[in-house]
Specification:
The chain is mostly beta strands. It has 3 domains: 15-247, Jelly Rolls, CATH 2.60.120; 264-344, Immunoglobulin-like (Sandwich); 354-451, Immunoglobulin-like (Sandwich). The protein is built from 1 helix and 35 strands. It has one helix at 203-212; strands at 15-16, 26-27, 32-36, 41-44, 54-59, 63-69, 84-90, 93-94, 102-103, 112-119, 125-135, 147-156, 164-171, 174-182, 186-192, 198-202, 221-233, 239-247, 264-266, 272-276, 286-295, 298-305, 309-313, 320-329, 341-344, 354-364, 367-377, 383-384, 387-391, 397-402, 405-409, 412-416, 423-424, 429-437, 447-451. Strands 1, 3, 4, 7, 8, 9, 11, 12, 13, 14, 15 and 17 form a 12-stranded mixed β-sheet that branches. A 6-stranded antiparallel β-sheet has the order 2-5-6-18-10-16. The protein has a 4-stranded antiparallel β-sheet with strand order 22-21-24-25. It is elongated. The two termini are 46 Å apart. The relative contact order is 0.13.
Length: 452
């Protein structure tokens, strides 16, 4: 098995060298660090994975250059170091004016932005990456245990992130492989499919995607934003030319997302329906969608989603509704509304309906078995034919089923009866089951079981 990039921390006490206000020191001690721009940022040498020499020449304008690196580590193991510049708190060494830690649900979180410009040598084995840390608490010291978001702008040599690839996504003007692994905390890595030397993005762009995949939570706290390099072999010449982090406010980005696709409905019952639509695009990144519903002439926002699907419940039987969706970005720019979708709920009636209840029989790190999913006719007369819809979490895949025919459309799964179990007497029940795989460590389970 190929080893992967290990998280960019080490159990060490940070050494802070006192320097004149505008000094641009050369740091060669393994864990040496210094502040720049009046304490706004910290630059650290951070040779946490090796005993080989490394020196960095600090640029007071907001960066550094690796001037010496004697690393020669196998690329199927951990890297030698993570020389970086950061804002926030790293093992109790905190910068000035970053306003971190900040909860990801805070009103100012969406406006947090970072930029970086980098230069790469043609030799060696390394990655160029952001390392963005989240913790369930407003931690300023020690190991964060929530999510580690890594954004790889470039890599050279046979190096790869923690875990395995779970998808591909377009964010912040680029296309990225998405990798996931858990080593005591969730590591979500975004690896650019074509190298880039610069990036300008909102933190929420990538964090919202991690949340939508079940790897992070909005209640967690951003503790630090770091940009630098992981060298395995060599490293001399790796340069951060400039770095910034701060709040841009909501007026900097004025470009709205594109119009989302027209919603389509699936699994409609007498009281609910599941909508899905084609994603919007944005110059920075879409952070969510508003779902609008009209009954007659009254239009209301009935909910929001960080993905391209939404389940609306509590509807009236035999009633026609119209739905639209619109996209939002981190600066709260709003797209035009999509074309409308018309949905008519099924009749209710005194004969009653049916219910579906699911049980996870067994579960392991990369999969699970759901059995039984019990379908019960709650009506007062026999029913001929039933279907059950439910939502499958992102990254999960159905690998087998029994006693029902399953079809998948996006994240919506529809299970329909077979010939031998389609007729149910009043108050009678039948059941089916299925098996699914999931990304390692993703503990989400299917939800929203609805029977018709």
């Amino acid at each position: 098995m190929k080893w992967t990039s290990i998280p960019l921390i080490a159990l060490f006490t940070t050494c802070l060298f006192a320097m004149p206000a505008q000094a641009a020191p050369v740091l060669c001690d393994k864990y040496a660090s210094t502040t720049i721009q009046g304490g706004r940022y910290v630059v650290m040498n951070n040779v946490w994975g090796a005993d080989t020499a490394q020196c960095i020449d600090v640029n007071q304008n907001g960066g550094f250059t690796v001037t010496q690196a004697a690393h020669n580590k196998p690329t199927n193991g951990s890297p030698a170091a993570y020389p970086a510049i950061y804002a926030g708190c790293h093992y109790a060494n905190c910068t000035t004016g970053s306003n971190l830690p900040m909860q990801a649900s805070a009103s100012g979180f969406a406006a947090l932005r970072s930029t970086v410009s980098m230069t790469y040598p043609s030799s060696g084995a390394y990655n160029a990456s952001y390392d963005i840390w989240f913790d369930p608490t407003p931690r300023t010291d020690g190991q964060n245990t929530g999510a580690e978001i890594m954004i790889w702008l470039n890599r050279q040599g046979s190096v790869q992130p923690v875990g395995s690839q779970v998808g591909t996504v377009t964010l912040a003007g680029g296309t990225w492989q998405v990798w996931y692994g858990n080593i005591g905390w969730n590591v979500i890595s975004y690896v650019r499919t074509s190298p880039a030397t610069s990036l300008d993005f909102t933190i929420n762009t990538f964090y919202s995607d991690a949340i939508s995949r079940g790897y992070a939570q909005r209640s967690w706290y951003l503790t630090s934003v770091q940009a630098g390099f992981e060298p395995w072999v060599g490293g001399t010449g790796l340069t951060v030319n400039s770095f910034s982090f701060g709040s841009t406010g909501t007026g900097t980005d004025t470009t709205p997302p594109s119009t989302p696709g027209t919603p389509t409905a699936a699994g409609t019952t007498s009281t609910g329906t599941t909508l899905s639509w084609a994603a919007s695009s944005d110059n920075v990144g879409v952070t969510g969608y508003d779902v609008l519903r009209a009954t007659g002439d009254t239009i209301t926002v009935v909910g929001s989603s960080s993905t391209t699907s939404f389940t609306d419940t509590g509807l009236s039987p035999a009633t026609t509704y119209r739905y639209w969706v619109r996209a939002r970005d981190a600066a709260n720019n709003v797209s035009p509304e999509s074309a409308a979708a018309t949905v008519t709920t099924l009749p209710g009636g005194t004969g009653g309906g049916c219910t579906a209840a699911a049980t996870i029989q067994t579960s392991w790190s990369t999969g699970y078995v759901v059995q039984p999913v019990t379908v019960t006719n709650t009506g007062s007369s026999a029913k001929n034919g039933w279907s059950v819809t439910f939502t499958l979490p992102a990254g999960h895949t159905i690998t087998g089923s029994w006693n029902a025919s399953l079809t998948v459309s996006g994240s919506t799964v529809t299970a329909r009866n077979l010939a031998h179990n389609g007729t149910l007497a009043a108050n009678a029940s039948t059941s089916f089951g299925f098996q699914a795989t999931r990304p390692d460590g993703n503990t989400q389970a299917p939800s929203g079981y609805t029977c018709t």
